[in-house]
């Protein structure tokens, strides 16, 4: 199979076995039997005999049983099946598995775009692909969007390679922390006017991150089943959930904040901030994984640090903007 390694890792061409019985359509059944028996020890699979023309194009197929039951004087062209199930080498391996199961065939022929016979995907390889696809589906359920091959390679990657994959997203978190510090400094005049606002910064950021992380985990998992529902309907449902969640938490948080601070301005600020920051956090939690998946990035690896950074900055910006407006209007 070394000659097929130039095909993509998950393509049908990568799984091709070329060492199979191949005969010409014009020879007799007796000659075909002799050819199969002579090569019995070297063939990798002998479920079927594949029939090609002078140019190597696949024109028919017959089973070993059909070959040895037929009249030996007949030509292969008289007994072969001309309507042959086939896949192209760049087709996904899963397509070959589906054809094998639906058509009850033990090996799936692979031909190029000119019809030239390249070989078959044998039954043992079909079972191996089916097993791999099932594992990938289970990985997708828990939010891992990588292929099985990519997941298996994680165990053999060097420390430097893992460092190289992780550090860019962590640097984003570091930059976000610096931006958050700059943002707080920019609203220093608000803190000077009402110092108690600083005491609620951890709670605002935590609640936004908690709701955002919850939404993000569920959304990444549900990306696996996006064929089963409309994304717009899913997003609208999440907006309604977010509105109910934000309203509930905002009422409770503003009441507690008002009781602690004894200030209606702070109570109003906390309630309004929490509504908008939670809705923003949920929006980020759905948009970032979807965008990363579109660019073939693993949302489970990349969206965590990136989304957290966006949520933290947006929550702080909303908090101080609302505080400045509320204090200005109620003062």
Automatic annotation (TrEMBL):
- UniProt KW Cell membrane keyword: no
The keyword Transport belongs to this UniProt entry's keyword annotation: yes
> Tell me, what is one Gene Ontology molecular-function annotation carried by this entry?
magnesium ion transmembrane transporter activity
Q: One cellular component GO annotation, for this chain's record?
A: membrane
**Pfam families from the UniProt entry:** CBS (PF00571), MgtE (PF01769)
- Residues spanning the membrane: 167-184, 241-260, 266-292, 313-330
For membrane topology, the record states: Multi-pass membrane protein
Q: Which SMART domains match?
A: CBS
Source superkingdom: Bacteria
Tell me the compartments it is located in.
Membrane
Where does this chain mainly localize?
membrane
Q: Where is the CBS domain?
A: 16-78, 80-138
Q: Which UniProt keywords apply?
A: CBS domain, Magnesium, Membrane, Transmembrane, Transmembrane helix, Transport
Against PANTHER family, the record matches this protein to: MAGNESIUM TRANSPORTER MGTE (PTHR43773:SF1)
Q: Which family does it belong to?
A: Belongs to the SLC41A transporter family.
**Protein name per the record:** CBS domain-containing protein
What organism is this sequence from? Candidatus Sungbacteria bacterium RIFCSPLOWO2_01_FULL_47_10
Phylogenetic classification of the source organism: Bacteria, Candidatus Sungiibacteriota
């Amino acid at each position: 199979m070394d000659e097929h390694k130039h095909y993509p890792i998950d393509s049908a061409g990568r799984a091709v076995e070329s060492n199979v019985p191949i005969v010409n359509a014009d020879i007799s059944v007796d000659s075909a039997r002799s050819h199969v028996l002579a090569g019995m020890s070297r063939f990798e699979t002998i479920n079927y005999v594949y029939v090609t023309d002078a140019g190597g194009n696949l024109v028919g197929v017959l089973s070993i049983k059909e070959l040895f039951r037929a009249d030996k004087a007949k030509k292969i062209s008289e007994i072969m099946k001309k309507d042959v199930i086939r896949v192209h080498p760049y087709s996904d391996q899963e397509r070959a598995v589906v054809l094998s199961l639906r058509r009850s065939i033990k090996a799936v022929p692979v031909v190029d775009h000119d019809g030239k016979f390249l070989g078959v995907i044998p039954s043992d390889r079909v079972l191996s692909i089916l097993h791999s696809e099932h594992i990938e589906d289970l990985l997708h359920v828990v939010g891992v969007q990588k292929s099985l091959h990519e997941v298996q390679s994680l165990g053999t990657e060097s420390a430097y390679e893992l460092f190289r994959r992780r550090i860019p997203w962590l640097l984003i978190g570091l930059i976000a922390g610096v931006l958050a510090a700059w943002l707080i400094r920019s609203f220093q005049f608000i803190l000077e006017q009402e110092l108690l606002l600083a005491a609620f910064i951890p709670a605002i950021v935590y609640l936004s991150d908690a709701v955002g992380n919850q939404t993000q985990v569920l959304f990444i998992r549900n990306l696996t089943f996006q064929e089963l529902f409309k994304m717009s309907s899913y997003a609208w449902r999440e907006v309604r959930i977010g509105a109910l969640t934000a309203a509930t938490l905002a009422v409770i948080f503003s009441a507690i904040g008002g009781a602690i601070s004894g200030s209606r301005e702070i109570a109003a600020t906390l309630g309004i901030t929490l509504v908008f920051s939670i809705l923003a956090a949920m929006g980020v939690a759905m948009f970032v994984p979807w965008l990363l998946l579109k660019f073939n990035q693993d949302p489970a690896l990349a969206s965590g640090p990136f989304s957290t950074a966006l949520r933290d900055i947006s929550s702080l910006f909303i908090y101080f903007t609302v505080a400045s407006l509320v204090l200005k209007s109620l003062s």
